Protein: GGDEF domain-containing response regulator
Organism: Vasconcelosia minhoensis LEGE 07310
Amino acid sequence: WAKNQKSSSYQVFHDSMPVISGAQLTMETWLRYALERGEFELHYQPQLGLRSGCLEGAEALIRWRHPQQGFIPPLDFIPLAEETGLILPIGQWVLETACQQARQWQVKKLSLSHVAVNLSSVQFNQPDLIDCVAQALATNDLHPSQLELEVTETALMQDAAQAVETLNQLKALGIRLSVDDFGTGYSSLSYLKHLPIDTLKIDNCFVRGVTQDTKNQIILQSTIEMAHRLGLSIVAEGVETEPEKTLLVQYHCDFLQGYWIGRPMPAAALEDCLTGQDKVGSIAKFVT
Ligand code: C2E
Ligand code: MG
Ligand code: MG
Ligand code: MG
């Protein structure tokens, strides 16, 4: 399937159609069994709180280790999982696993205020979403404020009226809600007024190279100001360098996420970072 990895759609087949659709079928079969074979794992990427100078949150990111193909990045299988509906059991596994992990960190008294989980638009539009989330919290005895769900603008805009309803129900559970990849979807700013969201995650395309890009500086600065005036907090995604960090500190961004803070890593590795941090109160590099 090397060929169709390039295209994000799995429906565009040309001359070699039988071969490629065969490959798609194979991948679909693999994906179908990946859960029960335990081939998925979650990595966690830390989020640095700029007010505290501490790692305060972590985003759970799915990883697929295929026995023959090796590591397959999420963007190469999530679209197929969405098309086939397999995203529902996979997404439920992600939710359960992340809640279980968050609870373990809480029991160990590590100072992590929340774990964030990505919701696919297919999950977001699933009628039993609220029950699934409530159940994941209850089963793992996790306080709702320790779970954050990330929804993309595109998912929110598919049926804006229904989205308001769904988000209100999720909010009523007491969880945190964020808009992922903010600024890149087809959306209307009016939703910011109507939806019970806590956080905007401004997309990494605005952060990348921002020190050389005046327009991105204006976009970042005004988005952060707008968010604050609306009572929302802001996470900057994809912070890769110290100058980018410095600029975001100047703009009063609330949280930073990106390779400069830390790459997505196995739970045990993040736990080591958190343990180190809790010993000394913060991590030296982050004290600004
Ligand atoms: P996302 O939710 O926007 O996640 C952030 C992505 O940016 C992650 O890619 C992360 O590794 C990457 N990233 C973080 N910091 C940096 C940086 O400093 N530089 C660069 N270049 N990249 C950075 P990843 O893990 O490959 O995930 C890609 C996308 O796949 C995610 O984007 C999300 O949309 C989706 N995804 C991942 N895990 C899940 C999941 O469990 N469920 C669902 N539905 N989607 C998921
Ligand atoms: Mg995300
Ligand atoms: Mg994102
Ligand atoms: Mg993104």
Remarks:
- The beta strands are 40-49, 54-66, 70-72, 114-118, 147-152, 176-182, 199-202, 233-236, 255-257, 265-266.
- The first helix runs from residue 2 to 5.
- Confidence is low (pLDDT under 50) at residues 1-18.
